[in-house]
Amino acid sequence: MGEKVVVAGSDLADRQLYRHKLRQCVDALERLLAEERFDRPRAMMGLEIEINLADEAGLPAMRNEAVLEEIASGDFQTELGQFNIEVNIAPHRLGGRVFEELREELAVGLAYADRRAQRAGARIVTVGILPTLTVDHAVLDNISAGDRYRLLNDRILAARGEDISLDIEGVERLRVDAVSIVAEAACTSLQLHLQVTPRRFAKLWNAAQALTGAQLALGANAPFLFGRELWRETRPVLFEQACDTRPAELKAQGVRPITWFGERWIDSVTDLFEENLRYFPSLLPICDEEDPLKTLAAGGVPALRELRLHNGTIYRWNRPVYDVADGVPHLRVENRSLPAGPTVVDTLANAAFYYGLVRTLADQPRPVWQRMSFELATENFHAGARHGIDAELWWPRGGGRRGGGLVRVPARELVQRELLPMAYQGLDAWGVDPVDRDRYLGIIEGRCRTGINGAAWQSAVFHDGMARRGLDRGPALEAMTRRYMELSRSGEPVHTWPLR
User: Rounded to whole angstroms, how far apart are CA atoms 462 and 469?
Assistant: First the structure.
């Protein structure tokens, strides 16, 4: 939700000054690129996982402050809603037994957090949207403590000039006339970071965009919102509507939303920061004292705080990141499309598929973004979110080799036939141990073989509860959520879970 900020109303007054500072930041970034001041090539990856809190009955628990006090670790932080927390995993070198190292680290850390959360009357749940969440939970009273959250809510509503409404049509239809930004807190995500060199950035970002539809199809884990069955991965459409700064008139004019897949392939990281400056008024125009160009002239490395804060309030599904570590700047691609869960091994399977496939796609001599339009990549993004593992996706025939064309292929067939072999190849290129490669990509193959991912399991068990057990909608969602919580703690991948 952007950087931690503490501001008074007077700090938000001078939008023109802020725009000027943003221009300086982008100019400074271009100079850093021209002078090749960035970190040397290093295969570094990192994870962030957003987590829901529920009680033993499977209902949302507004206890994040008490839970974090019990956990007492800087790796765990607040998120937007009182029923959310986030865990940040320190960067790891992408190679060797990295996924098994992460499995052990996450399994131990999340089990510890769950035990401590129990003392505060909650359990942790890794799921894209908590199925038992209702409209009554998504109210401003349940926003997390902290100026940045209320400030962001106020700024989005002020920019919009009217209440936020939801209208989502999927398996069923949900219409809610007025919600706060806390509705967006229903979305809990997995964020995958990859440090890249400036010369490789555009290729890796384009590759990440091209594979996002397949990611969502395989990893969908958010089929329910406010008691309705909607998209297999409802987070993208909910995020777009709950954070929309545009009234109907601006939508009609084609003004871009701040939750954005994008509109074109890029040639440089500066393309994205220029778009941020050109298209998006700042929600938090807070100026830092640093003059980035003077810092550069003095031989220093600018923090570019305005650029980073502004970038943090534009919700791209693959976000560019500028950061400074130990006095040296670096760039990252932050992949934000995936939901949390269902288990640690499912999370790492999603990560292995992404890191392997993005490497191979970026290295292809005739890359997919030269063979497929950005509009079709966008269509794949929506198809993967709406239909999950049953989606059909556009892809160049034969992986984009000469003589091929574009075909629409069932996602399971595309992954098994073309994308999984490329993911294996990419993990080999990163130097990942074959044992880890085979284990975690084998989970992806298992989902394709069975047709079961998190969303498919949730839907099947929910409908079984109503049809076979005679439960009403609410009790069926609660029973399914309790069973989900139980099975997720077992650590077995979701495609092996029983459907009854």
Answer: 10
- Residue 260 is inside which H or E element, if any? strand 259-260
pLDDT for res 13: 55
Give the residue-averaged pLDDT of 55-77.
Answer: 96
- Average pLDDT of span 67-82: 94
Question: Residue 397: pLDDT band by 50, 70, 90 thresholds?
Answer: confident
Q: How far apart are CA 252 and CA 238, in angstroms?
A: 19
Closest CA to 295 of 287, 285, 303, 305: 303
H or E segment and range at residue 89: strand 84-93
DSSP string, 182-218: GGGGG--EEEEEEEE-HHHHHHHHHHHHHHHHHHHHH
At residue 300, what is the residue type?
Answer: G
Q: What is each CA distance from 191 to 319, 391, 396, 407, in whole angstroms?
A: 10, 22, 27, 30
Q: Would you place residue 399 in the very low, low, confident or very high pLDDT band (cuts 50, 70, 90)?
A: low
Which 3 state secondary structure label does DSSP give 448?
Answer: helix
The half-sphere exposure of 355 on its side-chain side, counting CA atoms within 13 A, is 33
